Amino acid sequence: QQQQQQQQQQQQQQEPPREVNGSEAAGCDVGLQAANGGAKVPDVEVLLHRNMKNFEYGFMVVPDKDSLVITWIDEGGQLGYWNRSCPRHLIVQQGDRIIAVNHIADPDGMRTQLLSAEECCMHIAQCHDGSGSAQI
Length: 136
Prior knowledge:
Layout: H1 2-14, E1 18-19, H2 32-35, E2 43-49, E3 59-64, E4 67-73, H3 78-85, E5 97-101, H4 107-116, E6 119-125
Antiparallel strand pairs: 1-2, 2-6, 3-4, 4-5, 5-6
């Protein structure tokens, strides 16, 4: 039994962040249209979890009205790993906006979740065109 627990822990440490969609997103979907004045914008849901090997999510944000703007991404952090392992159109970049974290959509609450939760389901409004360049 102890060996099983050790194997599970090792698996969790090696598990990459993954895209969340469909039924797996269970409650992780927040209306982007409402948060963006009714306009549809490209968005992605990202599930990150802390583990013994990589405790940091690896990005910085600043609050901006009803969202958190991503200002820096550590390539060695969980979000950097997400970016390396996901399709190009799902890459999260500086300037993208987090509009909900774990069902919470106010900036202070989202920051609290990012700082304290072991697992964060983030709904991100992409502010780039998927080609790697930011939209201006």
